[in-house]
Amino acid sequence: MIVRKIVFWNWSLIIGLLLIGSAAIADRPPECKYCGKKITGRYIVSEGYNYHVKCYENHIALRCALCGGIINDEYFEDFWGNTVHSKHKGEVPQCEYCRRFISDEISKGGVEYDDGRKVCGICREHAVDDVAYAEAVKTKLTKTLKGQGIDIVGVEVPLYLVNKSTMTELSAGSHADPLGFTHYEQTSYAGGIIAERSFKIYMLNGLPRFEFISALAHELMHVWMFTNAPTDIDPVLREGSCNYAAFLIIRNYPDKEARFVVDNMTSDPNPVYGEGFRRVKKYVDRHGVSKWLEYLKSNKYPPW
Ligand SMILES: [Zn+2]
Ligand SMILES: [Zn+2]
Ligand SMILES: [Zn+2]
Ligand SMILES: [Zn+2]
Fold it and tell me: How many whole angstroms from 18 Cα to the centroid of ligand 2?
C-alpha cells in the first residue's frame, strides 16, 4: 500500500512586494523601467524599479491564475508555477492528486468521481480507467523491475481497478489513503513448507498516469517481498523498500508529473512510508541495489 501525500508542503506562501511612491517634486523625474519614459505623478516601485502605474499593471504585475486580478499581497504558488490569491484556498476545490485549483484557467476543468474524489482535467488526460491498459503497464513494470534484480516474472498477479470505497474496505486497518493494495494468501504443509501462493493487486481507478505507475511498482515490490523476504518483516523496512522500488521506476521519466511523484515520496512526513523510503534510499545510495535486495531476503529488521 502507498500513502498519498497531502496538500500543503508544495505551496509556498509568499508576500508580494509592492510599494507605491510619488514623484511629485523630484528634480529629476524617474524613468519607467518598462517603457523608458519619464514618470510624473504617482508611480509604482517594485523590486527596486520604478514603473508607470499602467505599465506596471499591464506588463509587470503578478496575476492570479484563477481570477486574473493583480496580486499584491499574500498568494500561493503551486508545484506547477501557478500563482493564486490566497483567498481562493477553500473557495475553489483542488485536484486530489496534483493540487491544482480545479478551473478552466488552471487545470482544464475537472470531474468528480462517484466516490467523491475531485480530479482535474490535466490529470484526467492520462488517468488509468482501463484494465487492459493497466495490465500492459504491469507487464512493462515487471520487465523493468527484473532488470533491477527484482524478479517476479512468472508469478501470476491478477490486477483489479476499484473505486475508493472498495479500496478503503479492502485495506481496512492498514493505511489511511491507499492507492494500491496487494492481497496475499498462502497454504502450507505441516512443517511450514509453502504449498501454494496467490496474489491479487487492487489499484484505485482513475489515478493519473504517474501516480498509477508509482503505486503499481510499489505493489509489485510487495509481491517480490512476499516471495523472497520474511513475511513478518518490519513495516518501515517493508514500505520503505516498496517505495524505493517505485522510485527506481519513476525517476527514469523526464516528465514534470513524475518529478512531482518523486517529490511527494521524498518529502512525505509519514514515519513508515516517508521515513522508510528515506532510510532505504540512504542504504541503497551507500551499498547499491543488489546488497539491499540480498539484505531483504534474510532480515526482518532494518539495517539502520
Ligand atoms: Zn505498501
Ligand atoms: Zn511606463
Ligand atoms: Zn485571484
Ligand atoms: Zn490534477
Answer: 16
Return all residues near 292 (Cβ < 8 A) that are at least 6 apart.
241, 244, 280, 283, 284
Looking at 22-26, 56-60, 114-118, which range is the least confident one?
A: 22-26
Q: Please, which pLDDT band fits residue 18 given cuts at 50, 70 and 90?
A: low
Ligand 3 center to 219 CA (angstroms): 40
Do residues 92 and 101 touch, judged by C-beta distance below 8 A?
Answer: yes
Give the confidence band of 172 by pLDDT, cuts at 50, 70, 90: confident
Task: Report CA-CA distances (Å) from 209 to 21, 121, 123, 255, 271.
Answer: 50, 13, 8, 11, 26
283 CA to centre of ligand 1 in angstroms: 19
What secondary structure does DSSP assign to 72-125, as a single string? -SEEEE-TT--EEEGGGBTTB-B-TTT--B-SHHHHS-EEE-TTS-EEEHHHHH
Residue showing cell 519513476: 250
Smallest-distance ligand from the CA of 50: 2
Contacts of 291 (CB under 8 A, 6+ apart): 284
CA of 74 to the centre of ligand 2 (A): 25
CA of 117 to the centre of ligand 4 (A): 11
pLDDT at 6: 29
Q: Write down the pLDDT at residue 175.
A: 65
Q: Tell me which of 111-115, 137-141, 169-173, 254-258 is least confident.
A: 169-173
Give me ligand 1 centre to Cα 240, in Å: 8
> What is the dihedral angle through the alpha carbons of 197, 239, 202, 192, rounded to the nearest 10 degrees?
10
Compute the mean pLDDT over every residue in the chain, rounded to the nearest whole number: 89
Q: How far apart are the first and last CA of the chain?
A: 23
Q: Would you say residue 192 has pLDDT above 80?
A: no
Among all bound ligands, the one having the nearest atom to the CA of 75 is 3
Question: What is the CA(52)–ligand 2 centre distance, in A?
Answer: 4
- Classify residue 200 by its DSSP letter: E
